[in-house]
Fold this sequence. Notes:
With 410 residues, the protein is an alpha+beta fold. The chain has helices at residues 81-87, 92-95, 149-158, 179-189, 199-211, 226-233, 241-254, 299-314, 390-404; strands at residues 3-7, 17-23, 30-31, 36-41, 46-50, 55-60, 67-69, 73-78, 105-106, 113-114, 216-224, 262-264, 267-269, 276-278, 280-282, 285-287, 290-291, 328-332, 351-355, 359-365, 370-384. Strands 11, 14, 17, 18, 19, 20 and 21 form a seven-stranded mixed beta sheet that branches. A four-stranded antiparallel beta sheet has the order 1-8-6-3. Strands 5-4-2-7 form a four-stranded antiparallel beta sheet, with no helix packed on it. β20 (359-365) and β21 form a beta hairpin.
Amino acid sequence: MPTVPILMPQLGESIAEATIIRLGVAVGDIVKTDQDMIEVETNKAIMSVTTLCDGVVSEIRAQEGTSYAVGSVLGLLDVTEEEVARTGVDTMEATDSTPSESPPCVDKETNLHFAVDDADTYTEAPTVVPSVKGLPVPTGTLGAHYISPRMRARMDDLGIREADISAIAGTGAGGRVTVKDLEKFLDYLESWPSVKASPMRMAVADAMRRSWTRPLATVGIPARIDNLLEHRSSQEPKPGLTLYLLRAFAVAISENLTSAGYLIGDKVVHPRSLDIGVAVQVEDGVVVPVVRQLDKKSVSELIHEYADLVNRTRDRRITEQDCSGGIATVTNFGTFGLTLGTPIPLPNETLILGIGAGVKKPVWSEQTQTFLPATMADLCLTFDHRVVDGGGAGILLSRVAELLQSPESL
């Protein structure tokens, strides 16, 4: 009888793995096509693995609480020849493959070739010359940036990334970190209290690492929000302050689409739709669902759509589609009592706009020639400096602050 593997599906473009949170079937269960079998948690939502055909569960390999990469075999189904012919599913024999031989590694800086099973040493290492005399550890050397194939393989086994070993002082040629250095460091941390990072936390960490490969800068401006708060209090239901900010941000970007462009090679790709994400705090992380076509809908038209999106996000019941395609993000860190911040845009976005908590401050009035109380909130815009300059970012941010003065137009 043919055997069909139950595979971890591709649950979204940016999702490489998912964690099993509930096994809905057991060995011997009869299942039908498209039946929910296994509940998994990605970095953004809770989803289900379904069956591709009718069959009987013959083996369960997955374990609850364990993460599996896309394509991993979670279990096996016994199916009939007729069912294979009807659905066209691949059997276990068809999906088995022999791993290809790993290609040799090349150090891009020295152009030296190394086999995958190389020891943790290499020849023709550059001469180590300290760039500042008297320092105990040489700086600015090629070797410090080189990771041997053996070291990289060990890091892969442990799930460790290059940024994770930045705290380790290397003893190898040119100051590079060796496997021995890594093992010594891990032994040192063994007695420290620790918890396993959740899929959400790992996803946020990965996104921020990729974001920080670009030259990012932040500018800020105080914005008076008394008119906004007054307008909000007169509405029923009351729009969130973040919704006003989303709408103002979209209008400001629509007046200069280049500000939200994305640099690819020698081209700045402009957004084709003003879809902007909103950072929503969930357990152990942040999820950024996207509000669509913000330039074509008013605040009053967006109230229910926005509230539904945020509520589904907090319940972790959103789809990959809900979080894809954003051109920028808005974050309201003022809800935590913070007045200032420097948010980091997602890797696929050029801009992120943040707003701090409103604070009563004395503001000079030219009309009365006196200081009057006003509610002020700091706006912070972080941007990819390759695409936007400080002047352009300042103009964009000033326009947002101006639009917030007339909330009835939003």
